[in-house]
Structure to design on (250 residues):
């Protein structure tokens, strides 16, 4: 059962959507008429998908989206609006929203998109990752272990997903804080800040206990002068490049 929280200022349209959603056996929907009520709904019910109209003014809607991300990091956020502006869409992407649905649309379209963001975005990235993940992950697990990052570390698990995504599409690294970390966090039902700290700790440990000669050969130009080791972004980017070179001919 997919738990959905629904919010739209247009009560008539909201009722139309709710009527359609209530006939869908895979979806359980709760709704409310106020912004604070919607946030309370998020906290109390921990929905899988939060569906909301990006209300006017836009800053109001963006503020609610940011609060949802903090209150329920594991939730997929699906935004509805009639705004067709690239800057607006880019803002939603940077916030980490799962999908943007432009109004008007048929209510059944919303059902399809809810299932899409739930099953495709939250299942450990397998559907998002276009290659065969198994062989690449097996290679990566061994490679990280040689660098001094064992599988027992939480940062190891987060690094796997981050590197796999970046190897498929380097644009994930363009918004590592607002895009990549939240995406990995949703997969593991944790917070983006925890993902960032765990990855940083794993990298720090590698530079403390790992093979420094090999590490410096791999990252001769990726060293952060202030820290003496690569940043999270530089480490993930380098490992993604290694994956791409290793498996480009296979």
């Amino acid at each position: 059962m997919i738990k959905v929280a629904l919010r739209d200022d247009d009560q008539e349209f909201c009722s139309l959507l709710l009527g359609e959603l209530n006939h869908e056996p895979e979806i359980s929907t709760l709704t409310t008429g106020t912004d604070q009520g919607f946030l309370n709904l998020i906290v109390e019910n921990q929905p899988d998908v939060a569906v909301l109209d990006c209300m006017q003014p836009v800053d109001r809607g963006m503020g609610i989206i940011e609060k949802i991300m903090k209150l329920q990091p594991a939730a997929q956020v699906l935004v509805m609006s009639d705004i067709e502006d690239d800057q607006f869409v880019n803002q939603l992407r940077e916030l980490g929203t799962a999908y943007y649905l432009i109004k008007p649309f048929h209510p059944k379209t919303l059902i399809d998109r809810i299932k899409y963001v739930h099953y495709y975005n939250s299942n450990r990235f397998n559907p998002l990752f276009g290659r065969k993940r198994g062989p690449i992950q097996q290679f990566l697990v061994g490679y990280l272990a040689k660098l001094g990052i064992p599988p027992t570390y939480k940062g190891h698990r987060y690094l796997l997903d981050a590197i796999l995504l970046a190897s498929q599409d380097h644009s994930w690294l363009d918004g590592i804080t607002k895009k990549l970390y939240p995406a990995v966090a949703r997969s593991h039902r944790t917070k983006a800040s925890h993902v960032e700290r765990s990855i940083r700790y794993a990298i720090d440990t590698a530079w403390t206990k790992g093979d420094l000669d090999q590490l410096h050969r791999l990252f001769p130009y990726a060293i952060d002068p202030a820290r003496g080791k690569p940043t999270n972004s530089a480490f993930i980017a380098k490992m993604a490049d290694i994956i791409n070179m290793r498996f480009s001919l296979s």
